[in-house]
């Protein structure tokens, strides 16, 4: 009885190994058959897009902070004179 179990165990491990090999072969075959992925947005365009989003969010944040929280005119947040005044206050000229 124990010999029969050992034989069954050996067969199952051999079957598992053969099954694993066929799975690996199928995966490799799929890799070769798979078309290369074509990106809709190239990397350079993505970087430019992220930088533009960053700049837009920065300007919107400045306008909201200066206009809503600071009780000023939101358009003044983008003027050079406003920033020069802030720099003068910080450096105490």
Topology:
Layout: H1 2-33, H2 43-69, H3 80-91
Considering the chains and any ligands shown, give keywords for the structure.
single chain, 93 residues, 3 helices, rod-shaped, mainly alpha
Query: Please, what is the average pLDDT?
Result: 81
How many extended strands? Answer: 0
Q: Domains counted in the coordinates: how many?
A: 2
Q: How would a textbook summarize the main sheet?
A: none
- Distance between the ends: 98 Å
The H/E string reads HHH
Helix share bin = over 70%
Judging from the principal axes of the Cα atoms, what is the shape?
rod-shaped
Rg (CA only):
33 Å
- Number of DSSP helical runs: 3
Structural class: mainly alpha
Amount of beta strand: under 5%
- Low-pLDDT ranges: none
Describe the overall structure.
It is built from three helices and no strands. By secondary structure, it is mostly helical. The mean pLDDT is 81. The N and C termini lie far apart (98 Å). The radius of gyration is 33 Å and the shape is rod-shaped. Helix content is 76%, strand content 0%. It folds into two domains: 38 residues; 55 residues, no CATH class.
